[in-house]
Amino acid sequence: MISKRLKKLPEMTNNLAPEEIGKLIPTIKKNCTTKFDESIDLSFQINNRQKKSEINIRTVVNLPGGTGKKVKVAVVCEDNKAADAKSAGADLVGGDDFIEKIKSGEINFEKLICTPGMMVKLSKLGKVLGPKGLMPNPKLGTVTDNLKTAVADAKSGQAEIRNDKDGNIGVSIGKKSFSDDKLIKNFNAIIETLEKEKSNNTVKGDLIKSAFITSTMGVSYKLKIGKSI
Description:
Blueprint (H helix, E strand, L loop, with lengths): L3 H4 L13 H10 L8 E8 L11 E5 L10 E4 L5 H6 L4 E3 L1 H8 L7 E4 L1 H7 L3 H4 L17 H10 L1 E5 L5 E8 L4 H22 L6 E8 L5 E2 L7
Parallel strand pairs: 3-4, 3-5
Antiparallel strand pairs: 1-7, 1-8, 2-6, 8-9
Helix pairs in contact: 2-8
């Protein structure tokens, strides 16, 4: 049964021509008719099937406007680096004992950072951390000796960009409560990151085949690709 709220939302939006994000954000916000602060989400379909190989993107982007979410960050490191992690704002810090807790299933964090020296021990927990997407990765900046920067980035607002086997990428650019300017800056940061990934992977043709924008409980609109001013 369709709710009264859904009945009031626009229909057949997929038939509309793509618009720039700056024009669509006010419409998306208008459709946020729930009582909670809905997320503003992007969905990309990329051209991941190339003649010689399949493109797999997995990277992170620092969102200048933040994510609007509080992230609980844990750090696995040597004892002499624990102070750096704590001063940077890490919520949980530990070494061998902490690894044992994770091994037993005690996972009460949303982001895990590890120093290279401790990664050999932590890598044995692939079956525990891997399915949850929590295994630190040098490419994502979560295996590093620069704990202050890694923790600060995780806390200030990072989004992971990763495509599934069908070439779909879903990523949030913030909340309804964000200013339009913040949302546009976050969008531009994601587009810049995808452009770099295209260069790194030597993609033939366009990397992004299509893009849509929606809110958590709203309807989607076709999005023009390209940075917005």
